[in-house]
Automatic annotation (TrEMBL):
Keyword terms, alphabetized: Signal
GO MF term set: unfolded protein binding
Identification of the protein by name: Zinc resistance-associated protein
Signal peptide span: 1-27
InterPro entries reported for this sequence: Cpx_auxiliary_protein (IPR052211)
Organism name: Thiocapsa marina 5811
Length: 185
């Protein structure tokens, strides 16, 4: 038993987790772990109401926010690549296992809450896996894809637990007031 090595490994893992958590939170506009495209739309709508923006101003601000989102996404990818370069293949595999486990838990909860058929579960799993491959896909885009496989009743239940529900989404407070979301480990 090498407790010194175990402590160093645990400390390193915590440091990596802190970097990823900080990067993912700070990379979002306003420092919130929200869907960036939703944030930009909400911000523009708020500015339109309070500042009486012209169409030209709206377009310019939208462009500024989209450019910022692209820079933040690139920065997040760069940080992740640098971290991946430091980790061993075994450590990267553990991160992937945890990510897969989290996705399965989310999918199981969705299947139970919406009473999804096996076919629907398979289709949603495929969508979620393609999201892992396409890290630029927003939560709203994933939600829209999922909606395409739901019945009307399932769609109503799905919508009732969207952003703003009591449970909250990633980065939003849940009933206990604690924040949800965070890194895969």
């Amino acid at each position: 038993m090498n407790t010194g090595k175990d402590i160093r490994t645990a400390t390193f893992a915590l440091a990596v987790a802190a970097v990823i958590a900080t990067t993912s939170v700070l990379a979002e506009p306003g420092g919130h772990a929200r869907d960036p495209s939703m944030f930009a739309s909400q911000r523009i709508e708020r500015m339109i109401r309070t500042l009486d923006l012209t169409s030209e101003q709206q377009n310019e601000i939208r462009t500024i926010l989209e450019e910022q989102r692209a820079r933040e996404l690139q920065q997040r990818q760069d940080v992740q690549a640098r971290i991946d370069a430091v980790l061993t293949p075994e450590q990267r595999a553990r991160i992937e296992e945890r990510r897969d486990s989290r996705m399965e838990r989310h999918l199981d909860g969705l299947a139970e809450r919406l009473d999804l058929s096996e076919d629907q579960v398979a289709r949603v799993r495929s969508m979620m896996e393609s999201d892992d491959a396409d890290s630029e896909m927003t939560r709203d885009e994933i939600r829209e894809q999922i909606k395409t496989v739901l019945t009307e009743d399932q769609l109503q239940r799905f919508e009732s637990r969207g952003p703003g529900s009591k449970r909250g989404g990633a980065g939003e407070p849940c009933e206990s007031g604690k924040m949800r979301g965070g890194p895969a480990f």
